[in-house]
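A quick aside before the break. I want you to see a complete sequence-to-structure record at least once, exactly as it would be stored in a machine-readable document. Don't worry about memorizing anything.
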Amino acid sequence: MTRTPPETHPAPAADRHTAGLAAARRHLRTVGRYTFCSLLLAFFALPLLWLAGAPFDDTPGVTAALPSFTLANFETLLDNRYALRSLGNSTVLAAGTAVLVVVCSALAAYALSRVRLPGRDALLYLLLLLSSIVTGTAAMVPLFNLAYELDLIDSRLGVILVLSGGLLPSAVFILKDFMDGTPRSYEESARVFGASPLQVLRHVVVPLVRPGLATIALWSFAQVWGNFLIPFLLLRSPEKSPAAVVMYTFYTEGGQPDLALIATFSLLYSVPVVLLFLLVSSRYGFRFHGGIKR
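That is the input. The structure line, written in tokens, reads:
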């Protein structure tokens, strides 16, 4: 016994028209979305294109264009006695601050994670809130007076201490989450064999939270690398000024910004942070968890 197939009727014209309008709307939304993303990408890419091309242009302007290739801008930059030295000063300040912030925040975060103190969470959130409200700019007068009383004016150590104090609350807040995610059974096993608290932190906890430490180190380095105000106010000698302060002095004899020198120095200024970011990203991939497989 054979079954006859059901009769098919052509879709009404109104249904086809509605389906066509819906498809057209979908296409328009897709085109609009990609157009918006392209414009947004161009908006952020143009300054980078200018930074990549202007150092090699003999007469750079404020617009991004194909450069007339030259290396004279780099020769002019090398003739500046403070340019390359300022990059070294920035490296010292950023690396010193990063090391101090990582060490102090790791110790504080481990203590806050393992010791149950009354009002511990409230204290942590209060420190984070105050560090966000009372920024370095708002507290510059008391910080300057404190540095003056401690004879830390025109001292790299003074700049490192001031910058580290501003970064520590956020670093402790971030690292505490990493510390909370490490199993306490590992620490208990180490204590059974006679390990001290510092040995437990160094040999057990630190290897598990290395991605967090790398993130804090990179974040601290980048924050100090681009800081202008605090080194500008606390350092007096041009020989100790970092790159962000020295760049402020790149003007022509007529008082106009020297675009060729600024662009060339900016290109060199951005290279260390980019390389550090790529190094940490390739090593850890910015996984916001510890070393335990999940």
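Two observations worth writing down. Residues 5 and 239 are 92 Å apart (CA to CA). The chain has twelve helices and no strands. We'll return to this after the break.
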